[in-house]
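User: Hey, my collaborator sent me this sequence without any context and asked if I could get a structure. I don't really work with proteins. Can you help?
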Amino acid sequence: MKQSNFISELLNGVVNVFDTIALCKEISSCKFGYGFVARSTPNFSAPKATAGEWYEWFGECMPNIVKVTKVTNARAYDYAKAVNRQLDKQGIEATFKSSAMNGYEWVVPNIIKRATKDDSLQLCLSFKGGDKTKFETFYIVGDHFATDREMAFIKSHLYVAPNKSVKQTKMGVAQEDIIMVRNYKFSNIVSVGTTPQVEEFWQSINK
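Assistant: No problem. I've predicted the 3D structure and written it out in structure-token form, which is a compact way to encode the shape of the chain:
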């Protein structure tokens, strides 16, 4: 398949919502070995202040850039229970409480949440550094896959969000056992399945 066809599929393709729900139910039941591929819009640090740098590289101040991520061996924990379980394991009083999930409600506990304002669905991934959950990414710039040099430039300008694990760290959770969370819009998921199926899809992309 031509590169342009892969790019079109990655930018516009959407997995059947019921297939994604079925995948999420497998993951939430603690079954291992599932994954997905999703696109997202990256956030950049000081895009206006660095507009000149972007123009030098791409001929425009801010080209359309899309991040494509492969997730394998996905996990979904009950966030608060997982943190307290780890605290208890370390001999620390298990009193961790998660923040309220304002604007969302669970459709499938711990993994599918719905935005109350527009009914859109999100896949909520939760994992520990010590898990076998793996991430791999690349970027699409306009009509082409980013070159290695473009990738380095893009990554050097990414916005780094504040560390949300400070609360866990202060309570004493070991660094490798901190629970991390990432959310993916259902409308941005382009492939789901077992880890081998996702790996096969990823390898088939002609970059």
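In plain terms: The CA atoms of residues 88 and 94 lie 6 Å apart. You can pass these tokens on to your collaborator as they are.
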